[in-house]
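Let us practice reading a record.
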Amino acid sequence: MAKQRDSNHNVMIPGRWVERVEELFHVILGVFLLGIAVAALYYSVVRVFETTPFFPTGMIQAINDILFIIIILEILRTVVARYTDGVFQLQNFLIIGVIAAVRHILTVGASMTLASGKSQAEFDRAVIELGISTAIVIGLVFAIFMAKASNNFKAK
């Protein structure tokens, strides 16, 4: 017969130490992400004024940079929510995915518009990328809808 462990057995690392270390890592990650967002914002503002021509290249780059900063801030929000609630929230990750896919759609669309003299193979590849990214956005939006519906169902 297998020997059962005593529920009062000695643990090498107490659980509260692990929790404190985890909390410390979340704080460090949060501060690091905030620093990255501030640096990205600074770099984006500088790049807007240095990009020539401003229309349309600078504007497209600025929108791309803004969406990147929003992604960083959403990741920061997810880390903060994990620190305060103790769980990762699915909807935050889905929103990050939607923003990233829309950012990719805008980037590919802008490159298709600005680039003249693309070969047929390059054009076809860009159209396929747009289609795949659009399908990803639709799938993620559907997942957000299902997650919200699930939360509403649980609340009732």
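A brief commentary: Residues 15-50 form the longest helix (36 residues).
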